[in-house]
Amino acid sequence: MTTPPPGDTTRLPDGRLALRIERHLSHPPEKVWRALTTPEHLSAWYPFPATELDLRPGGVIRFDNGEGGTLDGEITDVDPPKVFAFREVDDHLRLELHDQPPGCLLVLTHTFAETAGYENYTTGWHNCLDALATHLSP
Predict the structure, then answer these.
(1) d(Cα 26, Cα 119) in Å, to the nearest integer?
(2) Predicted TM-score (pTM) above 0.85
């Protein structure tokens, strides 16, 4: 098993920590956008299966927590096919797509409500992005 490349971490002015990971994908932004914003595709690579997604600012995003309950979030930003952002519990995730032929650059920014344990997220996000790349490929 190889060690994933590190993510960039930044301390925000309010003291929170943000993890930023970039990944080049060999698919057009429109195809990646569908994988980010439709429950059946999002569920294929995200840590929790998406059960509801109202794709608009203020819309609900709901995940099955695998323990008989749900994790509810709120969509904070939508700009197809460039930006999809949402709050999950107290953390904030922002997914940006930038044209970068052949394909696009995905920039994931995870802003943590609490900094304890954030180091574990880097490997987890790399695994999720590997699963996304696999899901996108036929």
Answers:
(1) 28
(2) yes
Query: What is the C-alpha separation between 54 and 58, in angstroms, rounded?
Result: 8
| Two structure tokens written together for 136 | 């996108």
Residue 105 · residue 57 · CB < 8 Å: no
Residue matched to tokens 């569908």? 34
Residue pointed to by tokens 């696009």: 104
Helix (H) or strand (E) holding 33: helix 29-37
Cα separation, 20 vs 98, whole angstroms: 15
Cis peptide bond upstream of 28, omega within 30: no
> Which amino acid is residue 91, in one-letter code?
D
Predicted confidence (pLDDT) at residue 18 exceeds the cutoff of 60: yes
